């Protein structure tokens, strides 16, 4: 663990940031504000080109950005990275330059096998891009994990730490990992708990109340809206702080009913999710789904968007426009 990294190693480096979405925009702005030299590489006429220009960046095609760069940060969606690597990076990246990822997926699952004459590193913030930017602007930072896959120059680790410092991560915490650990834990976290687990818990709770005849508006506030308050307490002080702030009645209900809902059978199924990640089943399925044009992905996504909790939620959130003023993400469409 380290919190003392500085940007010194990259002081004279040119950094090419490929992709200007959630992570790309946040990294590029933070690196620039940390005094580093940043150029943005995008597809000509891509959806975020004008946004990067409006933010004051020099924007060129990916291949051109790679050509002059000492460090190339690959911040496009994971599924487009293998083609981007083959077409724009591999033929153009300088020997001795660093290739940086924010998620280990493509290297770990061998979708990208980088040239042997470059450094290959990882800096993954443990938070969404909008937070990486807003925390930096407040003088704070989002913790990052970093790793070295290939150290050609003998300076790969220093470069990763300097980049993490440049995006503000060193203000919080840098933890050394490897591509395998970052990839597997990141996928597990988002599938079992953060995105998949949390949203299913909310949806099943909403359905249980509504099917029992309670008003959907009240069900929405109970199982979705109020979750933020609980998660903020987790974030600030863990489960300890949450228990300090809720009533004795809520605590007793937590102790006796929580384990009835999420029980050892749930944990066994979490282990199944982890096993599919570790043995490559999830990666294989996801790559096949992407290459088939996302048929199931689109169907499943539409079902979430059409769920009654989203209908009632949109109506209730429209009454609270101030909810929209916090850290916002502006997701880029997939494909
Ligand atoms: P995103 O979908 O928000 O951004 C995509 C960007 O890449 C856009 O600027 C888009 O125009 C551009 N792009 C798409 N195809 C391109 C191509 N062929 N050539 C050049 N540019 C192209 O992506 P993201 O969510 O920021 O993810 C980027 C990386 O960061 C991924 O490896 C992801 O796993 C990782 N990551 C994301 C988060 C997150 O919160 N979103 C957190 C940690 C790590
Ligand atoms: Mg993650
Ligand atoms: Mg992830
Ligand atoms: Mg879901
Ligand atoms: Mg209550």
Describe this structure in words.
Its EC number is 1.1.1.86. Its cofactor is Mg(2+). NADP(+) binds at residues 20-23, 43, 48, 129. The chain has 335 residues and is of the alpha/beta class. The chain has two domains: 8-178, Rossmann fold; 189-325, no CATH class. Helices cover 54% and strands 12% of the residues. It has 16 helices and eight strands. The protein has helices at 22-33, 49-54, 62-67, 81-89, 105-108, 129-137, 156-166, 179-194, 196-211, 216-225, 227-245, 248-261, 264-278, 281-291, 295-306, 308-318; strands at 14-18, 37-42, 59-61, 71-74, 98-101, 119-125, 144-150, 174-176. The chain has an eight-stranded mixed β-sheet. α1 (22-33) runs parallel beside α6, α8 runs parallel beside α9 and α8 (179-194) packs antiparallel against α13 (264-278). 32% of the residues are buried. The model has no long low-confidence stretch (mean pLDDT 95). The site of one magnesium ion has 4 residues, from α9. The site of one magnesium ion (MG) has 3 residues, from α8.
């Amino acid at each position: 663990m380290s919190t003392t990294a500085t940007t010194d190693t990259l002081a004279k480096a040119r950094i090419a940031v490929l992709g200007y979405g959630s992570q790309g925009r946040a990294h590029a702005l933070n690196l620039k504000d940390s005094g580093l030299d940043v150029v943005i590489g995008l597809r000509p006429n891509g959806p975020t080109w004008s946004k990067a220009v409006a933010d004051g960046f020099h924007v060129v095609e990916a291949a051109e950005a790679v050509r002059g760069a000492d460090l190339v940060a690959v911040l496009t969606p994971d599924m487009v990275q293998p083609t981007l690597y083959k077409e724009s990076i591999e033929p153009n990246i300088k020997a001795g330059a660093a290739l940086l990822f924010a998620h280990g997926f493509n290297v770990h699952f061998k979708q990208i096998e980088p040239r042997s004459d470059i450094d290959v590193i990882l800096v993954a913030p443990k938070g969404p891009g909008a937070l990486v930017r807003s925390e930096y602007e407040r003088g704070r930072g989002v913790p990052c994990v970093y790793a070295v896959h290939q150290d050609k120059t003998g300076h790969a680790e220093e470069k990763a730490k300097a980049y993490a410092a440049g995006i503000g991560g060193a203000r919080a915490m840098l933890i050394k990992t490897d591509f395998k650990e970052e990839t597997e834990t990141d996928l597990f976290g988002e599938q079992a708990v953060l995105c998949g687990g949390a949203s299913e818990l909310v949806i099943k709770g909403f359905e249980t109340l509504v099917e029992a005849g309670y008003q959907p508006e009240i069900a929405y506030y109970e199982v979705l809206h109020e979750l933020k308050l609980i998660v903020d307490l987790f974030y600030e002080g863990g489960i300890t702080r949450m228990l300090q702030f809720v009533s004795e009645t809520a605590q007793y209900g937590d102790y006796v009913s929580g384990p009835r809902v999420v029980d050892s059978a749930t944990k066994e199924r979490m282990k199944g999710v982890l096993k599919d990640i570790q043995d490559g089943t999830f990666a294989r399925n996801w790559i096949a789904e992407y290459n088939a044009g996302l048929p199931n992905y689109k169907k499943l996504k539409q079902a979430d968007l059409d769920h009654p909790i989203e209908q009632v939620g949109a109506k209730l959130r429209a009454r609270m426009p101030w909810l929209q003023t916090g850290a916002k993400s502006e997701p880029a469409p997939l494909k």
